[in-house]
Amino acid sequence: MLKTYEERVEIIRNEIKQIGKIVLEANKISLKALKDHDISLLKDIDLSLKKLVSRSNEIDNMIVATLALYSPEAKDLREMVSYLKITNELVRAGSNSKTFIKTFRKSFSEELDEATILEYAIPLQKAAVNALEITLAMLDEHNEKIIEESFNKVLVEESKTDDLYAMVEKNILKLISNNYELSKDYFNLLSSLRRLEKCADRASSIANLIIFAHIGGELDQ
Length: 221
Known about the structure:
Helix content: over 70%
Shape: elongated
Number of strands: 0
Structural class: mainly alpha
Distance between the termini: 39 Å
Largest sheet: none
């Protein structure tokens, strides 16, 4: 029996949320590893970019098939276009998360100034987690006022990651100037923390797409 348009959209939305949950869970475990000062937890995070891409492609094919079969208009069309872009943003968020996990684990050591690094890394990771969590909750929301409020909350978290990264960058550069032989490890750590900032950027982009789906307007690039 042919599924109704609403049923197909619900399936697509649920599949998108499943990808989002995989990325979110990886970041939550990362946050726990940082808070507990147990970086070994990072090696146990199962985040396969290949699987994310595969699932994303499957969802995209479902969206294209739905567009061809039902030819939605106005708000329904905006929603499908948004979902088509959201899958790509989630894959990018997953890629940033995976790079952070891999690079931070390899570069972090007792030789480095752990206290200074974690002072900023923990709130940076927390802000990225919050941005992702709020954004994924927006997928289930239909009240436009609540959606806009959530969007603004995501922007606040994304702004936090910008500020925190600027602060940790300044402090790590000071550490490098005082301990040049560890400069490579410090630079790699800084690069990994940049990925957390980018992860929050992706959450912001997804929130913007959800706003577009419900309210319309121009998409930010």
